Amino acid sequence: MKLNIREVTGFVPEEAIYARKTEALACIKALYEKTGKGSDYLGWVQLPSSIGDGEFAAIEDVAAFYRKNKVEVVVVVGIGGSYLGGKATLEALSDNFWQMKNSEHPKVIFAGQNISEDYLYELLELLETRSYGIVVISKSGTTTEPAVAFRLLKAHLENKIGKEKARDCIVAVTDAKRGALRTLATQEGYRTFVIPDDVGGRYSVLTPVGLLPIAIAGFDIRQLVKGAADMQKATAPGVAFEDNLAAIYAATRIELYKAGKTTEILASYHPKLLYVAEWWKQLYGESEGKENKGIFPAAVTLTADLHSMGQYIQEGLRNIFETVISVDRTAHKLRIPEDPANLDTLNFLSEKRIDEVNKMAELGTMLAHVDGGVPNIRIEIPAINEYNLGRLFYFFEIACGISGYLLGVNPFDQPGVEAYKKNMFALLDKPGYEEESKKIKERL
Ligand code: PA5
User: Fold this and answer.
1) Which fold has domain 2-36+226-409?
2) 307 belongs to the catalytic site
3) Domain 48-219 falls under CATH 3.40.50.2300
4) pLDDT digits (tens, 9 = 90+) for 306-328
5) Angle at 403 between CA 401 and CA 407, to 5 degrees
6) 2-36+226-409 and 48-219: same fold?
7) Are 45 and 103 in contact (CB under 8 A)?
8) How many angstroms separate the CA atoms of 163 and 258, rounded?
9) 421 given a catalytic annotation
10) Which residues, at least 6 apart from 348, have a Cβ–Cβ distance to it below 8 Å?
């Protein structure tokens, strides 16, 4: 994996980025020594190198259970950090048309990430004719969206196959001791996995939160974690700033932010990475967007979005910079055929690989955007696979911790997320919210 900041230095001097060296390295030290803000939530920092064989085996055992019992669909119920890591990995590693292709593994789909009545109705309708299992993921165990979805699914599965069999097909991933989901899992006798106390939702992809759905879908969680562990080593205290990609990325972002570039657009030229960008948006948005500060994280999939967002990126408000995840090798090879009629005048592309055209689009776009006033950071990965995704996840996590500290915020809390919940509960007349309920209804 490489980081290229050459196309940033026309906007902020390289010296200014490197001048952050001492500060950035101090942030890494604070993350490891737990001396900075949010120090109760730093369990993810050394997590990759600490996952043992027993933990992998327990997760793989559940995956084997669903496979052996020919479970067709596993519904993973969760939201935010309890959803996006798994979803991102599955989208990135799966065939683009996996929903329409057969596989020896169950099809993993998601629920509890919205409160759409149609989504849940149509899901239950689909599950009527499928054998299925449920993995319910919630650290707090009280989040409304997954709790509502799980109520429906649990009742549906129990009605369909009986309480006993349903119990065998339900797995809960939650806090070791606390919360409604832990209580329910104990009461019902579900198989459970623990989300460590000191790992917050958006940093939990390498816990059973992410690893279980990924293993169930048939992907190699050991390679994923190996990639993360290698990146842990490559970004640990003691690694020189010049060699530490995460420290350089964090310092570069903060210099750009100081120079007025307040929006970062994560771009990729591979639709499979769409949900990696969604995961990244949550990681950076929730970690940095507080105290009236923070870079706004946005994302585009190119070249598709060049035909929608491209105009804005090229010529809109000049407060943006772009970070491109560039993929060196595709999994397959395909060449453009010669067409004797050549009505589209594209015969100059005959026999070229599709990926060559994609790469020239990527290069051409980068130069155009830089010329248009948009600095460009490039993160280069050799290919989309488990190992490289593991590296990428950990790289973004550690860089986010450094970047949050450089910004002066606590990157591990999310106090602002409570505001909507308070209003929603007041509007729904939740017991205990009588006062808020009265006030909000008067306001409306
Ligand atoms: O990053 C976070 O902490 C949040 O996105 C949570 O993961 C999300 O709100 C889900 O919370 P829980 O796992 O408690 O249901």
Assistant:
1) Rossmann fold (3.40.50)
2) yes
3) no
4) 999 999 999 999 999 999 999 99
5) 115
6) yes
7) no
8) 58
9) yes
10) none
**Residues with Cβ within 8 Å of residue 140, at least 6 apart in sequence:** 175, 179
- Domains of the chain, by residue range, sit at 2-36+226-409, 48-219
> What is the spatial distance between Cα 49 and Cα 361, in angstroms, rounded to a whole number?
38
One-letter amino acid at 10 equals G
* Total residues belonging to the chain: 444
- Tell me which residues have their CB closer than 6 angstroms to ligand 1: 79-82, 138-140, 143, 146, 200-202, 286, 414
Q: Model pTM?
A: 0.97
Measured CA distances, 154 to 108, 174, 184, 220, 281 (Å) = 17, 16, 12, 29, 31
Burial class (CB in 10 A: 0-12, 13-18, 19+), 67: middle
Please tell me the residue having the least CA distance from ligand 1 atom 9: 80
Q: What is the pLDDT of residues 264-311, one digit of tens each?
A: 999 999 999 999 999 999 999 999 999 999 999 999 999 999 999 999
Question: Do β-strands 2-4 and 376-383 pair in parallel, antiparallel, or remain unpaired?
Answer: antiparallel
* Strands annotated E in 48-98: 73-77
Place of tokens 């006062």: 435
Known catalytic membership, residue 332: no
- 207 contacts 47 by C-beta, under 8 angstroms: yes
Measured from the Cβ of residue 244, the count of other Cβ atoms closer than 10 Å reads: 25
